[in-house]
Fold this protein.
Amino acid sequence: MLEANPTDSFLNHALALEYIKLGEDQQARILFETLLTREPGYVGSYYHIAKLHERIGETEKAIYWYEKGMETAKQAGDNHAFGELRSAYEELTF
């Protein structure tokens, strides 16, 4: 499916999650960053890229993605995603 539709955000997001499961964080990071550059309103990817950076000890990058995700979720009116991002952000920063 991805070969037929290489810019499909859902498919790229799903593939990035599979890379995380396989321990291939670099590949996942590249996919998430590419996806969010192309479609910054794809709110669901912010949490996962931030968690990835948090897990590998890149705290400043994790904070950046949580903040960017909260801003995007708020603009989209996605209160659920905003709450999840804020909770993870606060857990990391407080």
Observations:
- Residues 59-76 form the longest helix (18 residues).
- The chain has a mean pLDDT of 97.
